Amino acid sequence: MGQPHRRYAVSLVVSCLLMTGSAWLLAATPSSSQAPLKLVTGPHYAPYAADYLPHKGLGPYLAKQVLEGMGRPVTVAMRPWKRAYREALSGQFDAVLPYVATPSREADYLFSVPIFETRAYAYVRMDSDLEAHSIEGLKGLTYCNPVGFTDEDVLKTMRSDGLINRVTPASLKSCFNMLRVGRVDFVKTNQRVAAHMITAGDLSADQVRPLPFVVEKSALRLMVPRTRPDARALIKAFNERFRAMQDAGRIEVLKEGYLESVAPGAGLPRIGPSAAEPLTR
Fold first, then answer.
1. How many CA within 13 A on the CB side of residue 16?
2. Residue 79 CB coordination number (10 Å)
């Protein structure tokens, strides 16, 4: 199928899904007799989570399709990331997403199968003299990753050894603004989030470039508090439903359709040396 025809077809699919609640996709209708499952997500992480996006982001949208397909009504709320974590843990919400699994989080929560798999890059100013080709080349630098956002083991070890410094403002938009004025050397995030942040901020794509290596790979998941009485059953049912939809190709159709709907036309820009790679969703 040609690209214009493919984009048109995908746009038709997502229009139907967003307006009709994906009736063709659901194997069961949410029961009004059941209390709704209460999801919570956080802000400033488009396209995966943001208050200005349909359904509060792609993450809540996909989770809602999966859970409603299990016959459960769903509500979605938004809180700052740390507050979302605490309030779900205290029983105010049934599940929170999207989060990266870490040992400390796994002590409090059960995690789903990966909903998204991402690759993070180090984004620098286009006029930066930095020409690192591996994570070793980031030693001695200062990077930005907002409060409530985790780092994988390599960066954590470098920080604990005093080899790299991290600043933690309230949002990724603040990170890119700090990069613009030279207060940090790089911002660590994945390609899709970077494209949204650059579009929404005071930078343009020709002012920022990713360094040509992956800083870390992560999986974004839904998590359910261990203290919830049927936590294991809920995670098991979610995982089974998600895998069934994934095997049938429905998850990919939903992802592509949603991304088309929030970035009409040619889609999000691919910038930097990784532009030739397929974007991980």
1. 11
2. 18
